Amino acid sequence: MATVTIVDRGCRDCMLCVDICPVVVFDHDAEMSRAVVSRPQDCIACLSCEYLCPSRCVEVSDYEALRPFHRIEEHAALIERFLQEKTASRTLTGDDIAEATRDAAARLHALSDAVVETMGRGHKPVGRRAGAVAAAHLPEMYEEKGLDRVVAGMKREFRNSFEFEHTMAGDSVEMTLNPCALCKIVRDAGQEVGKAILCEMFHEYWAGLFSAYTGTSYRCEVPRAGDVCEMRLFPAR
Question: String of b and e for 30-55 (b: at least 16 CB within 10 Å)?
Fold first, then answer.
């Protein structure tokens, strides 16, 4: 059975865990102004509360994490054969992709606005956590050993969305995105590339990915942003 705990001193009484839990594990204690775990036996280990907590004070443990079989690229053909249906990527038209791009841009801006509205300037940890969550949906990457293989694997996995070149110096990776897929989205909204909320969350997203895949906490800095974006990812000391 999963175990759910809350570090009392970290809870900021935002109620997000209470609102998000699908099986109502949490209650709000108005007198103490914080969330409490009232029904731990009902936890299904969906991890929604842990992902969403802005203070990182909710922890779910004692559960078995299952690899999402259907998300492993080499299994796509097997699943297509089993379902007797083509995967979406084989049926999309150019117009479909253009419409999806416009929709994604609108949703990304709405997301960044919602994060800032909810958390103020605490949006960077959200980006980092998003990277850690995304890492779980690319399970084959965990089988790559060594930083060079991890980077090669990431270039393969993100080849259709965030293509980049890179150089390595020890445990640091310098990435060049030419162009970054977010540049047009940010510019079309009249925002400055590199300093927009979406950009800052994206930088932390990559730090979250690297941290998850290597087991080492990584930080990100951006020496250059614009038509060509450069990111440097390095271990936090």
Answer: eeeebbebeeeeebebbbbbbbbbbb
Please provide the size of the chain in residues.
237
> From the CA atom positions of the chain, what is the Rg in Å?
20
Q: Which pLDDT tens digit goes with each residue over 75-111?
A: 666 666 666 666 666 677 888 888 888 898 999 999 8
Rounded to the nearest 5°, which phi and psi values hold at 60?
-115, 125
Q: Evaluate whether 51 touches 137 at the Cβ level (below 8 Å).
A: no
CATH of the domain at 195: 3.30.1380.20
Is pTM beyond 0.85 here?
no
Domain final residue pick, 16, 43, 61: 61
CB 176 within 8 A of CB 110: no
